[in-house]
Amino acid sequence: MIAVCLVAGPLRGAILNAALIPPASRFAERWDAIDGHLRTARGREVVVEAPVTVGGLVFITPHPLHPGNRVIADYYGLKSVRSR
């Protein structure tokens, strides 16, 4: 019984984690495109097609003064950034 528990727990975790791979891969592709756009937009106000949340965490919101958006804008040297 103990052996089953020792195998079942990690196996369940691996299956749950594997289910996250396709959405994470799609997000990584989208983020690469957004990142490239932001790197070329220094000093401008930028509007991007981006998810508001990723994995339950706030990403880029429609509000340019949102603290998360300000961090991204500061990092890339933008006047502001927001999502549509």
Quick take:
With 84 residues, the chain is α+β, with helices and mostly antiparallel strands. It has 3 helices and 4 strands. Helices cover 56% and strands 14% of the residues.
List keywords for this structure.
84 residues; alpha+beta; 3 helices; elongated
Structure description:
The protein has helices at 2-19, 21-39, 67-76; strands at residues 45-48, 53-54, 57-58, 80-83. It has 84 residues and is of the alpha+beta class. It has one domain. The strands form two sheets. It has a two-stranded parallel sheet. A hairpin with a 2-residue loop joins strand 2 and strand 3. The longest helix has 19 residues, at 21-39. It is elongated and about 60 Å long.
- Per DSSP, the total helix count is 3
Specify the helix fraction band. 55-70%
What does the overall shape look like? elongated
Rg calculated over all Cα atoms: 18 Å
How far from one another are the termini?
A: 53 Å
Strand content: 5-15%
Q: How would the blueprint of this fold be written?
A:
Elements: H1 2-19, H2 21-39, E1 45-48, E2 53-54, E3 57-58, H3 67-76, E4 80-83
